[in-house]
């Protein structure tokens, strides 16, 4: 099986001090567009000695899709002489080699195919795993974050608004990425899978994927320049500092530490010390008992008094609001006949439209003043 490394030049090529020495950098570089030759039956004409098989379970919601596309799966695996069986009762898929199978790695690719189908990857994408230059990686992200709410937020951050972040990652890495439940399935070249795994794990560690996407964009531009291929790219790549702006939650009960003193705390007073201070220690037994009985009786009297006051509260009448006397509306009004007669007399004296007497006098006086001024 060819590994893509050129054979050494005959005559001791690559050894110092001999003719035909070749630089090591030339030996390790792979020319552009070179592909490893495909594995054919001529490479392994006798086939495999033992039968190998792999099985994987699939969720209930994938049953209808797998049942529909299973003839296509069998046809694709049949080209590599690998049998595939679908068990709907047990909910499992099984792949096994046959006597005609000549490629020993075909069963590993078939195993990856059924794993991808179980993780909701469509058949059109999953069948690409049977190609030589395509690999897959199933990243488990369910156990990386403790809180379920935080996990959902970070998983949504990986997808981005309307799947824009995931699409950008797919374009930069040339991989197909499927985020489903607690796993992220990636399908593509080996170099792209390495970058996808790094971005996914960093996102779960609370590092936004946009930083890694910026780095990948710069790397892609740098790879186009043949002079920079052998140089270090650290000076071109951005360095992002992590800023933890979230403040620590303060506890409700703050335990304030007392000042340290080398001296021990004062010893509490005993019962004898208290009796000596009050003078009870020197009293006789009878006097002590009498004093105790007096204290007990005083306490009992206070309790009885308090209890009696609480009982008497039920017999105290509540304060009544003062009753407001409603004045009865007088229906009958006294009629002043004399006042009506005077109004009628005054109305007869007056002419209709005539001015009152006071206004007439004021007007006469104003006319007289005007006549005097004219003279």
From TrEMBL:
Disordered, as annotated region: 1-21, 244-274, 293-331
Stated family: Belongs to the KRR1 family.
Amino acid composition bias (Basic residues), ranges on this chain: 244-256
Lineage: Eukaryota, Metazoa, Chordata, Craniata, Vertebrata
Keyword Nucleus appears in the UniProt entry: yes
One Gene Ontology term of the molecular function aspect: RNA binding
Main location: nucleus
Localization per Swiss-Prot or TrEMBL: Nucleus, Nucleolus
Database matches in InterPro entries: KH_dom, KH_dom_type_1_sf, KRR1-like_KH1, KRR1-like_KH1_euk, KRR1-like_KH2, KRR1-like_KH2_euk, rRNA_assembly_KRR1
Species of origin: Zonotrichia albicollis
Function: Part of the small subunit (SSU) processome, first precursor of the small eukaryotic ribosomal subunit. During the assembly of the SSU processome in the nucleolus, many ribosome biogenesis factors, an RNA chaperone and ribosomal proteins associate with the nascent pre-rRNA and work in concert to generate RNA folding, modifications, rearrangements and cleavage as well as targeted degradation of pre-ribosomal RNA by the RNA exosome. Required for 40S ribosome biogenesis. Involved in nucleolar processing of pre-18S ribosomal RNA and ribosome assembly.
GO cellular component: small-subunit processome
Entry-linked CDD domains: KH-I_KRR1_rpt1 (cd22393), KH-I_KRR1_rpt2 (cd22394)
Name under which the protein is recorded: KRR1 small subunit processome component
GO BP terms in the entry: rRNA processing
Keyword annotations: Nucleus, Ribonucleoprotein, Ribosome biogenesis, RNA-binding, rRNA processing
Subunit structure: Component of the ribosomal small subunit (SSU) processome. Part of the small subunit (SSU) processome, composed of more than 70 proteins and the RNA chaperone small nucleolar RNA (snoRNA) U3.
Domain K Homology: 133-205
């Amino acid at each position: 099986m060819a590994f893509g490394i050129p054979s050494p030049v005959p005559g001791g090529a690559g050894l110092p001090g001999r003719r035909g020495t070749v630089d090591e950098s030339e030996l390790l570089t792979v020319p552009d567009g070179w592909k490893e030759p495909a594995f054919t039956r001529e490479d392994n004409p006798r086939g495999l000695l033992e039968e190998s098989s792999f099985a994987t379970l699939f969720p209930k919601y994938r049953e209808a899709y797998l049942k529909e596309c299973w003839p296509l799966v069998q046809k694709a695996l049949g080209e590599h002489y690998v049998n595939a069986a679908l068990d709907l009762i047990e909910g499992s898929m099984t792949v096994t080699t046959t006597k005609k199978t000549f490629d020993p790695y075909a069963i590993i690719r078939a195993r990856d195919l059924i794993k991808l189908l179980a993780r909701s990857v469509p058949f059109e994408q999953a069948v690409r795993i049977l190609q030589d230059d395509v690999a897959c990686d199933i990243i488990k992200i369910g156990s990386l974050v403790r809180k379920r709410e935080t996990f959902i937020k970070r998983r949504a951050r990986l997808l981005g608004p309307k799947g824009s972040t995931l699409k950008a990652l797919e374009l930069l890495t040339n991989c197909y990425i499927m985020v489903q439940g607690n796993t992220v399935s990636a399908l593509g070249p080996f170099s792209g899978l390495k970058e996808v795994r790094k971005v996914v794990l960093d996102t779960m560690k609370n590092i936004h994927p946009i930083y890694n996407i910026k780095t990948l964009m710069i790397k892609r531009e740098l790879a186009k320049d043949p002079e920079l291929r052998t140089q270090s790219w650290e000076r071109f790549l951005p360095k992002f500092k992590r800023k933890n702006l979230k403040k620590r939650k303060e506890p409700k009960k703050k335990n304030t530490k007392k000042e340290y003193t080398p001296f021990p705390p004062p010893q509490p007073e005993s019962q004898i010390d208290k009796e000596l201070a009050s003078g009870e220690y020197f009293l006789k037994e009878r006097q002590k008992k009498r004093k105790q009985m007096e204290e007990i009786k005083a306490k009992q009297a206070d309790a009885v008094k308090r209890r009696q006051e609480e009982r008497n509260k039920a017999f105290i009448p509540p304060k009544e609001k003062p009753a407001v006397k409603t004045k009865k509306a007088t229906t009958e009004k006294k009629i002043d006949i004399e006042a009506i007669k005077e109004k009628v007399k005054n109305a007869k004296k007056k002419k209709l439209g005539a001015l009152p007497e006071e206004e007439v006098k004021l007007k006469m006086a104003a006319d007289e003043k005007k006549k005097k001024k004219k003279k």
